[in-house]
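Collaboration report, partner site 2.

Our partner group contributed sequences for two proteins of shared interest, and the home lab folded both. The records are reproduced in the order in which they were received, starting with the first partner submission.
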Amino acid sequence: MKKMLGLILFGAMCIPGTPARAQEKSQEKAKSEEKAKQGIPVKVQIVLSEYDGDKKIASMPYSFMTITDERLGSYSTSLRTGVRIPAETESKDQKTTYLDIGSNIDCGVRNEEDGRLTVHLVFERSALYPGTPTGEEKLEVSRPNNLPLIRQFRTSENLIVKDGQTVESILSTDPLNGHVLRIAVTVNVIK
């Protein structure tokens, strides 16, 4: 009798759709979802280009590796590059403070179910204008104590791209000299 009951239970476990088989499928599905949530290495390239009319006058590439993360808005990579310049503050002690000039990039990438990638990017670029007017400026701007002006460019965006795709995501015009700034983002999954 016990032998017969054991054979019946064994046979029930082998039949598709039984609770034992459903549990196996559930465990397999959980393992595949866990693999999908693991980080995937991705190379991100950002190119900031500056144009004077149709003429490209500057191209600044930034390239780094990151890992995909399931949380949109989380940054797995931060890049800071530039210089600190001295600036005098107006006070009786005449102290010097330092300003950061350069590029700041925060980037996070999420792998979507359809194979595309969502890139969350915060890009900030600051640069010095010349200390004396060059005649290129389209707007009259006062320069206190003949100190240089600092140009600021900031963007925060979410891009949806395919592996290997390049997207020109931002185009902005500098109000002082009319130069056009463009950002192109390329994402490649590392296999």
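Second partner submission, folded after the first:
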Amino acid sequence: MSKFAAALNEQIANEFAASQQYIALAVHYDAETLPGLAAHFYRQAVEERNHAMIIVQYLLDSNEKVVVPAVESPQTDFEDVVAPVALALEQEKRVTEQIVELVKLAREEGDLVGEQFLHWFLTEQREEVSSMSDLLKLVERALESNILLAEDALARTPVGDQGVDPSAPPAAGGAL
């Protein structure tokens, strides 16, 4: 297995871990009766899961071994309603760094197809960091007066991905 393929297998774990963390955030907000924030993070969880499956499909298409990884348990306790969104933003920044490192590795190995594959992820991560930054600002402002204002804002103007991206590479098993 090439170093690039091994690193992509590690990224599968990172994407599944991100999905699990988003489920934990969604459950937290569901328990706090904040359905707009819960729904947002349930969607994010599916999106991250699909990112993992896109990488799985790429590895399958490349005749590389796919390793389905174990993931660490996500954080489930938070001090306030802002902390989960702050954690999500840090997670998106970390994933962006991981994708950048994958691009560098593909380039170093001369894997132009692999590098091209990752360009979609770079664009996606720029959008995710921007979207999560906006959500964090929204929740922070709402906390100063009433967190339900964030719920109202999400109902009027959803933040983040609202569906399947037709430009996304194919995911193994289809984007479910």
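Feedback sent to the partner group on the second submission included the following. Residues 90 and 129 are 9 Å apart (CA to CA). The chain has a mean pLDDT of 90.
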